[in-house]
Amino acid sequence: MKNILHTIILCVLIFPLILGCNQRSKDFPDENYNSLFPNKGKIDTPDVDYTDMTSMPCDPKEDDINYKYPGVDISENVRTYTVTLKYQFSEEQVNTLGGSDNRSQFDLKYIDENKKLVTLRSYSDDEGHKQTIENKKQYETTFKVKSGYPLYLSVYGAGYDIFKIKASIQAKSDDGIVVSPVIKYENSFYTDGFSDDFSYCEKIILP
C-alpha cells in the first residue's frame, strides 16, 4: 500500500515538470528579409567628387610596361593649371674607400603634360638608363595641364650612408581659384651601407 502511495505522490510531483518542458514558447512571426534588406540586383557605383582633391595611393613600382594613364576626362568648367615639381637628395658617405660617386639608387616618377610617366634616376644602370638626379642639386620644373590631370608623385629605392631626400608636387589654377594640396615625400637616415628600401606613391585628380 505504501509503495502505491509513493508512486502516486511521485507522479503528482513529476507531471507538472513534464508538462512545463513540453510547452513551446510563443512563436514570433517570420521576418520578411526581402523588405528589410532589398536586393537591388547590382552594386551602385559611388559618385566620385574630384573637387575635394582627396589624395589616393598608387603603385610605386609602376613602370612604362604596366603604366596606364590614371587621369579622367572632364569636359565642363575645364581649368588650366600650373604644376610645380621640386626635388633634391643628398648623400654623404661614411667610408669613402669605395669611391666618391654617389651610390644611392632610387627612382622619382611623375606624369608630365603629355600624359607620360617620367622616371628620374639617381643612378645609371646596365640597361642604358642614365642618371638624371645629381647629389645635393636642387631641382624645380613647371608645366601646364588641364582639369582631369592626375597630380602624381612616386619615390622608390634605397639610400646610402647619410641620406636625405625631399620631393613635392603641387598645382595652382591659372584663374587663381583652385590650389591643390601639396603631395610631398621626405626621408632621412644614417646607416653604414644601404638603407632598407623605401617607397611612396600618391596622386590627386585635378578638378
Keywords:
single chain; 207 residues; mainly beta; five-stranded antiparallel β-sheet; four-stranded antiparallel β-sheet; 2 helices; 9 strands; 12% helix; 34% strand; elongated; Lipoprotein
Q: Which band does the percent of strand residues land in? A: 25-35%
Instruction: Give the termini distance in whole angstroms.
Output: 100 Å
Provide the gyration radius in Å: 34 Å
Categorize the overall geometry.
Answer: elongated
What are the secondary-structure elements, in order, as H or E?
HHEEEEEEEEE
Largest sheet descriptor: 5 strands, antiparallel
Helix content: 10-25%
The number of domains: 1
Overall pLDDT metric: 82
Decide which structural class fits the backbone.
mainly beta
By DSSP (H or I, 4+ residues per run), the number of helices equals 2
Protein name: Lipoprotein
Organism: Riemerella columbipharyngis
What does this structure look like?
The chain is mostly beta strands. 12% of the residues lie in helices and 34% in strands. The chain contains 2 helices and 9 strands; from the N terminus they run ααβββββββββ. It has helices at residues 2-22, 33-36, and strands at 56-57, 80-92, 105-111, 117-121, 139-146, 150-158, 162-173, 183-189, 198-205. The protein has a 5-stranded antiparallel β-sheet with strand order 1-9-6-3-4, with no helix packed on it. Strand 3 and strand 4 form a beta hairpin. The termini are far apart.
Short description:
The chain is mainly beta.
Summarize the SSE layout with pairings.
Elements: H1 2-22, H2 33-36, E1 56-57, E2 80-92, E3 105-111, E4 117-121, E5 139-146, E6 150-158, E7 162-173, E8 183-189, E9 198-205
Antiparallel strand pairs: 1-9, 2-5, 2-7, 3-4, 3-6, 6-9, 7-8
